[in-house]
Write a structure and sequence with these properties.
This protein is α/β, with parallel strands linked by helices. It has five domains: 221 residues, Nucleotide cyclase, GGDEF domain (Alpha-Beta Plaits), CATH 3.30.70.1230; 199 residues, Rossmann fold; 49 residues; 107 residues, Orthogonal Bundle (Arc Repressor Mutant, subunit A), CATH 1.10.10.10; 90 residues, Serine Threonine Protein Phosphatase 5, Tetratricopeptide repeat (Alpha Horseshoe). Helix 18 packs across helix 20. The structure holds adenosine-5'-diphosphate and magnesium ion. The site of adenosine-5'-diphosphate has 19 residues, from helix 7 and helix 16.
Length: 723
Amino acid sequence: MGTSPRNGVHKGEGNGGPSPNTRDTLCGMASCGSCGQDNPEIARFCLACGERLSGSEPLQEERRTITVIFVDLVGFTSRAEKLDPEDVQAILSLYYDRVRSDIESFGGRVDKFIGDAVMGLFGAPISFGDDPERAVRAAFSVVESVRELNAQHEGLDLETRTAVNTGEAIVTLSSLPGQAMVAGDVINTASRLQQAAPVNGIIVGADTYACTRDVIVYEPMASVVAKGKSAPVEAWIALTSSNDPREGQTGRAPLVGRSRELHMLRQAWERVVADRAVQLVTVFGPSGIGKTRLGVEFTQSVVDAGGRVVRGRSLPYRDSSAYGPFADQVKQLAGIFETDPADLAIDKLRQTVASLLGSSQGETVIDHIGVLLGFETAGDIADRETLFFSVRCLIESVAADQPLLLVFEDLHWADGALLDLVELLAGRLRNLPVFVLALSRPDLLDTRPGWGSGLPAYSSLTLEPLGEDDSRRLAGYLLASFAEEDRDRQVALLAGTAEGNPLFLEQMASVVTEGPAARPSSLPTTIRGSVMARLDALPGEERGLLVDASVVGRVFWRGALAASWDSKSLGRILDALEGRDLVHRETTSIINGEQQFAFKHGLIRDVAYETLPRRRRSERHAEVAQFLEDAELSGTEATAALARHWRDGGHPEKAFDYFLRAGEQCGRGWAKRQAAVLFGEALRCLVEDDVRRRDVLQRQAVAAAAAVHVPDVRRLNSEPAPP
Ligand SMILES: Nc1ncnc2c1ncn2[C@@H]1O[C@H](COP(=O)(O)OP(=O)(O)O)[C@@H](O)[C@H]1O
Ligand SMILES: [Mg+2]
């Protein structure tokens, strides 16, 4: 495997972008690792057996949290014995096609077919942030599809058992688009769980359950005793799913902060009403920052002020029609329910339109809007302009009556056609009190760099993370049930980790309030998923550079990346990352002549770091240590950092020297407690019977005695290493 930084995968398009690194090249003949055949230098595949030749492709491995779905047919084998092989083949291919399209429609990928079983993957090669939820929804749709298949084919009675499981895996990305190989216990466990699922039922493992219980209804079941597992595996039966993805949770706490943003929106609303001037406002912010919540609070004040509000939401998957969110808004305007049959819906539409427009103009508009809503009407739309014109007529007539707020949620998932429609409404409507509120992640600007530009009344605002005080207040509300003395500590911990993201605060609070048993050792999987999705949405080289820089730490230097990135691309990529507000250039640097950078979000740094497989991580740490050593830094912090990088880079001898030196430096500065900790670190670099242990133990005891009571020395020794 080459020593290249991961040349990331972007939106499932394979390993895009130029490789900025040097790659192991093969000199002379390359022999095949599989059959031993010698191959010419340029060969990428073995001439004899067709195996990919090692070194011909830098394999990219990552640790990722993935969600696996396993579907198997019940008793199909016994049935298949009685059937003609051609019939078996026909049935199976129908079934596989359906399962595959169900999984893919939720953004997953079918990894393999094993006998009658299908294994699907979510979260690799890229993560959407809500992969467990997608997987469970896909499972429901598989069960539904099988039911439909049975109904459509006389005598067919397929039955399935399905399991969904979430966990960490090593993912090997190949150069083929969207391809990945995965390995990890999460897969074996999924397959074991699948065998324990009820017929036509879906069961999920603990992590999947924890990530999705807000949106899926579960029933507990007895733990599954699985072959090859020492402890029984916890499992839940999935019963039903709520219709709207990620809409299960509404705020549990009162609104904190955001008064400036609300004020701005309310003022804009007043202008819209007073001047009868159309406004488009886009609120940008990453997932969980509070866009929807802000929209809800604003909506409330609009309703209080006599406005009318309709809302539509783009979905990340399975969006049947490009105009879905707009169709939802029209339905709200006309009082149409999801469950209304088509003729009733058209009737309601007709009544609404007729009362607003004259009936002659009305008929055309009804036809057009009917098509947009997905109803079969007699209408036939000549072109998009005509359709948009009808939409305009409808909105004009509605807004003439009462000021109107159209909310478009999650516009980053919208189809281009809907974006056009929104811009058109904002651009062409005249002399009407219409406020268009768009809520979106910043990704929208990647697909539509010119969004909103050129419109007469466009503004945007970006939701920043909550400030320290607001974070603490929100954490305080969320942990209200906690005992007083423990609460302060937990509040501080949550506020310190969640980086001002209210959703992260909620997710962490719910883990904490479930008691120590439910407390995971690291970040909740839901948060890791969200952050991972942000990382995966970056262009490959930007992502790769972040991963590389993550090894250096929250603060890093340009030079620490120079070993794997050429200078020109390095500057360009760092600029791009700064433009995205992911890293920032610091005005000072502890290394003379080296530009110092810092990650804006510690969580992104942590999640990026976690993607590195152990071996790569260790190689990178050694490179960073070498860089820091060459920089000839002085000072305890730098020495200790050097020690840690050598340790994590697999050089305990060097680490030992530096820990010792850092300990001595600390001791001289009377930071005795810190000195004792560093001596403890030095001890951990030595094997049990190393003769130097006694000397270091002694120094540690002296330092510790000066700082704390002697009995604490024992505790210091058993303390885990600081990160
Ligand atoms: N300012 C806030 N005060 C209290 N809770 C908030 C605040 N902002 C967001 N929340 C809560 O955090 C969660 C995530 O917010 P949401 O609006 O869904 O984020 P987004 O739409 O940006 O993904 C919701 O439960 C929401 O009620
Ligand atoms: Mg939202």
